[in-house]
């Protein structure tokens, strides 16, 4: 049974280095002092809650060396743009004793149950680092149902846990919720790797619904259809291809470029400019993402 | 998918028409220190933001009927710290709360004990600016027991206390509430006595407590009476709130009262004190209020916002005009 699935000591040290370069002496002294009491669960919980009062909530700065250490240990784990209190809370969770699995899981679950928004964001951000990773699947699926923006983002964006552990229906639910709430899809870890035919079908249905209501469809969403273009959904891609909106047209071109389906390749070949741009690497999904965020 | 769609910035545009009283308070900022947003709609947040409310406090209250288990209290407290705070933030309104066991539900001893056990988990959370609203309803022995126990909690946590005073036998209930707070060693400046009226205000102020007034139609204060109170007692340690909840109440009571005060010739500084500054001062004693957090939201003129200030970014669309019959 897996406890930590990565080198916990290395990660803890890596986070500590970032905390050290972003916090005051008083905050570090307070944390050291709290560490002595971390073995008591009520004390552990109280520290978790009190952290922002002592660390403040400044956005941290992370050097590329510091980020590389984290990435080596847990690929896809990403702390850029976090506030210091969130970082410290995630580090603090790594100090929880894991010798008794039931106590460990129960303690973390109780933190979730009494958490306010920022605490929830920290807890969900910590998912890729928690011990017994299989234990958090239901909790993650529950979190996807949240209506609170920062909580959704903590789970959905730059978090490698969901792609690695969620089953297909829960994963598809995550992607759909991200689309419903206008999240930047390209920042979902594992987006391409976990493309699946069921999700492709849900997405085309959803697009039909949007079109019927006279609404637009996020061009990034078509990326998820790329390996599954067939005679059934080709008309949808063709419709996007003929859009007056250049970003939409570019998205359709990228889908066709990634597809093995001959009619899709023929569609792309009908526009030499776009085909060449894709071939030269001048048009990519990242380019589309940048355009969409402007 | 049905249910609540997350709000995006396109929902935050100003109304395209302006009620007349808003002209009188244009550019003013308000803090409503007592309002139960859980029982209000998102439209109310929109109207409150338009009227200049930049921050509010939601005291933990009862739901109109008793709760049957501690878990529903936990969920309720979580919603004050979570969904409500987020919903308010979508309109640039800073949402704080006070946490406590209300007097009505103190009368169920078994449940009250269980709630007391979970309170310490919540009162130390970010943005919890006091223990409240606590105190007396029927003035029973159990109400007194849990009022005292919560005063002790507040003292230990260094938090202000927000006291609900009873409808019936109000004068005696208010006196007792203050006596007991003093007995437990809470200094008057850490206690906000709520729902005052002409009968209670003098003693509350004379003893050094904060005197809050609830503008609530029919049952509590009307705002014409409020104008008279401020004319008589001045603006020191007096604050106005709406206590809007699931009853017939008005979440715009604070800005509307400010407009009426302005019309009645009350000095702008005094209006600012009773509709904003005093509440900030009283509850900032918790160490949990940072005025700069809501300065940005409050400083933004609606018309400026509309023309694309720093708060709203791309993808803006005109907000729904409520005067049209077409819904898109
Ligand atoms: Zn109330």
From TrEMBL, chain B:
SUPFAM superfamilies reported in the protein's UniProt record: Metallo-dependent hydrolases (SSF51556)
* InterPro entries xref list: Metal_Hydrolase (IPR032466), TatD-like (IPR001130), UCP005295 (IPR012022)
An MF annotation (GO) of this entry? hydrolase activity, acting on ester bonds
Keywords associated with the record: Hydrolase
Membrane spanning segments where?
A: none
Q: Does the keyword field hold Cell inner membrane?
A: no
Q: In terms of domain of life, where is this protein from? A: Bacteria
Q: Which PANTHER family match?
A: HYDROLASE TATD
> Which named protein is this?
Hydrolase TatD
Q: Which organism is it from?
A: Chitinophaga flava
